Every structure is written in structure tokens, then in C-alpha cells.
Recover the amino acids of this structure.
């Protein structure tokens, strides 16, 4: 079931957007141009984006506008970015951060 | 590297309007923002102002964006600022995309949501109310199908209705359990009091009624008669006598554990209940986002009415630090129209300094200052009472500081 709000009673219809594929922990997911990593994953029902470095418990977005850093993920195995302010692109590879030794730096 | 006349940090209502005002006066202006789209908090806003008039923040943002670009303003999104340094010419801003040089710097960073840490708040599916708003209205993705909102205030009620428009079943708006850190948001009497402070112009009948009652009823009395099962607004029950004690779930939210509470926040025994939900929003209110002002050496004051610590500034948006200005919610939490009006004041003040024509600009600036006061008087929602009075205190403080302050030494580089 899609979580996309394609028809909104006030904001209107979502115009056609280009579909792309992104990879999260190796698995392919559909996304749309204009999505952030966070919105693309949430649209697919994926809430947990990383595991806490010490407790290992799962974490997802909190503020969604870059303030809280809760949604940090690994981009292309080398960079840590905030999922909520990082635009997606076709073929993008995103991975969960799982511990201090896997920060990809 | 290009030297800008004005660099603005934050492409929200204040930043964009400042850019427009300054560019109209011939300044070379650049605006940067870390979000992916232009508009700041305008983007999420969607509420009915009157019977057939909606405040559609996306439309407002697009209009300001186009106007600024048309005037030659350079706007860049996805850029984060992590350091500021004074220089001979003005300021250097260190960003994720390199260094920017500018004569004048305007901080229009807006506000941030105040978190309410309650047990379980880090479980995936728990997010701030603003996060859900942006997900639904900006990204057009529902954060889930059913939701509970923890925190009863004007903002959470407005966004609850926006989530409903996105097709979310908002089960209830409740309050967080009172504790040492949350004495106000978690106490029914205090929540009632804040509802009752809303003006007669508040956007909904309940809140208007609450505002009217306030003239002859005390909140402690009103809260006594507030129904346990809440009053419905937009068909969503607002239960200010129900408190969340814990958010439940392992790798994903499953619901919220609640109890009934007395007007002072005390738990009523044997009233524990579980409300199922697949996401939970925490609404703790807004506070000025002022780290960059702190970094640049501004003098601060804590002002409850303005939402927290604000940099001391004049009504013309000057700070006590040379070539540094502020506008919008960084100066105190108010609505977008007020932020826009403040942006115009900042843009004009800065232009008059760059162009060296303060005398000619005087009447224009005075008009812009009066426009801010008018917006404030006509605001549909007052986030806090006595904002105008609190602001006057800040402006007085600015005058005092300005006289006493030893100018900070510039770094020569």
C-alpha cells in the first residue's frame, strides 16, 4: 500500500514525477525525483534508518529538516549524511550506520 | 571569490523578503539554506484563514522565490553553514560548499522544535509534529495511517488538521506526562491557560471561545469542566486531561500508554490505557534557532514570550555585532507574515548602510517597521502573550548594550 499523498484536497494532484531506483542496505527501492532519502524510505514503509552506536536499537527520522541528526546514514559507503535533507538520485546507495567502527570515514 | 553585499542564511519568509528588499535597492545578494527546497517553514504551512481563503505556504514560498530570482538574487539550497568569522570587509561564512565573503550578514535561521523526551521517544515512527507536517505537505508522503499527537498547542492542532487532509487518522491529541522538565506542557491547567490566552481572532471556534472565557473565568475553573474525553476540533479529540506515560514498540511504534491526570498533572490511579498508532508526533513548541548568532558573539537574553534565548537586536534588525543582522523567528517565535515584514526591515536597513543613504531611506524604513507592528497586532495566533511588550524590552536592551559595549576586536585575515 502506498503512503504517497498523490491527491490532496487542497494542494491538488501530484504532477508526474520521474521514477528512479535507490538502494538501501543493498536492496532496491522505488523513489521519485524530488524525494529526500527520508521521504523515499518512509514512502516504502521503512522507518528504521540506522542502529544506535552503543545500544544497537533502531532509530529513524525525528525533526525531518536537518536539525537533530537522528537520521544520519551512509552515502555511497564513504560519507555520512542526514537522510532528511539529502536529495535522492538514480542508483544512489544508502546504508545504515551500525556502530562506531562503521562510520565510513 | 565574489564579495557579496549581503549574505543571508535561511531561505524562509524572513530571508527571502530581506533578499527582495535589499536587491530592489541594488545590492548583490546571496541566500543559502540547508534544506533541499526554498521556503523554510512556509513550505509546510496550510491552514484556512477565512471561509474561502487558505494560507498555502508553498504558493507563498514560490512567489517570493520567483521575485527574488527575478531581482538577481542568487539562491543556493543544500548548503550548511558551520562557522562565521569577522573580517576587515565584513564577514566570512564557512559552508559545506566552501567559503563565502560578504559585507553584511543576515541570520534568518528561523526556529527549531523543542523536543519532549518521554520514554520510547527514540523508537522509529516517533517524530516531531513539524517532521510529520513536512513529510505530508512538502514530500507528499504520509508518515503512517494512524497517529497520536503528544502536546496540545495551537501548532499541534493546526498540523493535526493538515495530517487529516493527507488522509491520516489522527486518533487524539494528548499531553505529555508532567515532570520536572515539562511543568507547563504536562499540566492540564497550564495547557488550558495557554488556550485561553489566544485572542478573539484565533482560527477556530473552540479557541475563540476559550479566549472569550478568559475574560471572566479562571483557567483552573475552566479545566475542571473540560471533559475527560476531550473536545473535538476538526473532528479530532483534544484531551488535555490525558497524559502519555510511554511510547510503545521495538523497531517501530505500536502505540502510546496513557493515564488520566488531575488539573495539576497528578496521575489518577487505575486509568492506564493503550492507544494503538503507527506513528506518534511530539509537539513541544518552537524556539529561536540561534547557534550562529551565539557563534558570532551576539549578546543574548532569555525571553519566555519570544520562545527562548534571542540575540539582542534593534527594531531595525541590527545586532550589537558589527555588520550582523537578524530577522524572523531567530528574534522570537511568531507567524510567517511577521517574519516576512521583519525581513523587509532588515533588507532596507542593510541597503541604507551599504548605499550610505540612511537619510533618504528613513521614511521607507519607518514604514517597514510600522508594518511589522501592524502584522503583530493583526496576528490570528499569538504563540505567547505579551509579545509586543517583550519585544520593546529587547529593543531597549539593545540601546543600553550599544552604549556600554566595547566593540569586539576583528580578526584580520
Amino acid at each position: 500500500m502506498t503512503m504517497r499523498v498523490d491527491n490532496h484536497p487542497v494542494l491538488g494532484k501530484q504532477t508526474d514525477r520521474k521514477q528512479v531506483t535507490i538502494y538501501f542496505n543493498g536492496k532496491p527501492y522505488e523513489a521519485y525525483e524530488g524525494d529526500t532519502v527520508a521521504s523515499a524510505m518512509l514512502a516504502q514503509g521503512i522507518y528504521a534508518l540506522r542502529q544506535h552506536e552503543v545500544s544497537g536499537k533502531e532509530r529513524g527520522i525525528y525533526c525531518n529538516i536537518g536539525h537533530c541528526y537522528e537520521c544520519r546514514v551512509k552515502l555511497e559507503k564513504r560519507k555520512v549524511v542526514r537522510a532528511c535533507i539529502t536529495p535522492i538520485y538514480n542508483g544512489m546507495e544508502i546504508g545504515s550506520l551500525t556502530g562506531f567502527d562503521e562510520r565510513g570515514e | 571569490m565574489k564579495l557579496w553585499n549581503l549574505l543571508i542564511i535561511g531561505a524562509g519568509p524572513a530571508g527571502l523578503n530581506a533578499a527582495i528588499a535589499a536587491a530592489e535597492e541594488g545590492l548583490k545578494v546571496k541566500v543559502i539554506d540547508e534544506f533541499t527546497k526554498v521556503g523554510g517553514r512556509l513550505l509546510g504551512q496550510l491552514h484556512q484563514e477565512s471561509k474561502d481563503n487558505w494560507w498555502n505556504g508553498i504558493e507563498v514560498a514560490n512567489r517570493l522565490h520567483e521575485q527574488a530570482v527575478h531581482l538577481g538574487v542568487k539562491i543556493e539550497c543544500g548548503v550548511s553553514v558551520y562557522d562565521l568569522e569577522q573580517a576587515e570587509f565584513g564577514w566570512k561564512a564557512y559552508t559545506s560548499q566552501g567559503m563565502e565573503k560578504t559585507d553584511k550578514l543576515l541570520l534568518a535561521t528561523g526556529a527549531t522544535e523543542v523536543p519532549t523526551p518521554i520514554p520510547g521517544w527514540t523508537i522509529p515512527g516517533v517524530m516531531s509534529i513539524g517532521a510529520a507536517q513536512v513529510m505530508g505537505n512538502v514530500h507528499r508522503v504520509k508518515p503512517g495511517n494512524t497517529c497520536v499527537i503528544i502536546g496540545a498547542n495551537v501548532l499541534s492542532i493546526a498540523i493535526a488538521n493538515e495530517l487529516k487532509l493527507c488522509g491520516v487518522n489522527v486518533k487524539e491529541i494528548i499531553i505529555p506526562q508532567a515532570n520536572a522538565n515539562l511543568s507547563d506542557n504536562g499540566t492540564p491547567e497550564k495547557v488550558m491557560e495557554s488556550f485561553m490566552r489566544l485572542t478573539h481572532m484565533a482560527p477556530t471556534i473552540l479557541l475563540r471561545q476559550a479566549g472569550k472565557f478568559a475574560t471572566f473565568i479562571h483557567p483552573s475553573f475552566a479545566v475542571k469542566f473540560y471533559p475527560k474525553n476531550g473536545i473535538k476540533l476538526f473532528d479530532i479529540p483534544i484531551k488535555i486531561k490525558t497524559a502519555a506515560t510511554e511510547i510503545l514498540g521495538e523497531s517501530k511504534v505500536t502505540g502510546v500508554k496513557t493515564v488520566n491526570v488531575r488539573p495539576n498533572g497528578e496521575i489518577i490511579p487505575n486509568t492506564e490505557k493503550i492507544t494503538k498508532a503507527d506513528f506518534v508526533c511530539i509537539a513541544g513548541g518552537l524556539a529561536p534557532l540561534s547557534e550562529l548568532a551565539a557563534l558570532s558573539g551576539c549578546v543574548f537574553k532569555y525571553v519566555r514570550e519570544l520562545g527562548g534565548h534571542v540575540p539582542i537586536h534593534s527594531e531595525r534588525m541590527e545586532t550589537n555585532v558589527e555588520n550582523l543582522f537578524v530577522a524572523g523567528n531567530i528574534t522570537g517565535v511568531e507567524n510567517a507574515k511577521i517574519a516576512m515584514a521583519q525581513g523587509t526591515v532588515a533588507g532596507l536597513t542593510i541597503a541604507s548602510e551599504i548605499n550610505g543613504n540612511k537619510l533618504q531611506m528613513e521614511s521607507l524604513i519607518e514604514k517597514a517597521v510600522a508594518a511589522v507592528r501592524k502584522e503583530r497586532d493583526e496576528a490570528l495566533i499569538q504563540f505567547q502573550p505579551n509579545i509586543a511588550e517583550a519585544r520593546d524590552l529587547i529593543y531597549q536592551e539593545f540601546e543600553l548594550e550599544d552604549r556600554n559595549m566595547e566593540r569586539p576586536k576583528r580578526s584580520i585575515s
Notes: The longest strand of chain B covers residues 236-249.
